């Protein structure tokens, strides 16, 4: 092969490599999508469909957004609308898209359940405060922690911080639920993670739901592409494909069909909800 042909062949190979689709997609996500097992179930289905391996780090939403800012992820899958909007407005992310929702619930030791019977959300929080019932907060700037603080402020006027009965674990949701159970206290959790917790207890959970159904407890999830104009190594092409799939009829049906103990953990809503 002469030098000209050799050069053309090498150029062609380099061009193929430059244009080749990456074999994986790096996601920063919240602990609930991981703890519930949703991503473990979804990843092999997505790989079979696209050939792309989904990899993820599960942290609080605040940490996930920091990973996006630091260009350590391609796509974010998170659930704290106010801070997500700020992330996008500051130019760190694009294509914020609704995916699904579940709701938050308050769970507490079964021995405490009678204290909260027939009380609305505000009355429940007031009872916790007035009776100094042990409350366990994640305290980690996650989506769940942000929601908890918002609800405290809305229903009681201010969020507790240094009160003796208010405990910040600095840990993920499953760990915080376990601590609340061990300490016979109360915590706020997303429903999906609590169902996962119940599943591990095989019907012997020491915790019961003490408040649910209030409109203030809706829990909306979105996906966000890390802005490739800010992070040049961000895999925007694969991210666009993932967003397209998870919001498609196929992806939304997968979410709807994902259950534990016969209970759905999330409700798909890409078709019904604009990103809030």
TrEMBL record:
Q: Which GO terms describe its molecular function?
A: ABC-type tungstate transporter activity
- All residue ranges annotated as the PBP domain in the record: 26-250
Give the signal peptide, or none.
1-20
Return the InterPro entries for the record: ABC-Tungstate_binding, PBP_domain, TupA
Q: Which UniProt keywords apply?
A: Signal
Q: Show the stretches that span the lipid bilayer.
A: none
Q: What is the name of the protein in this document?
A: Tungsten ABC transporter substrate-binding protein
This protein's species is Campylobacter portucalensis
Q: What is the lineage of its organism?
A: Bacteria, Pseudomonadati, Campylobacterota, Epsilonproteobacteria, Campylobacterales
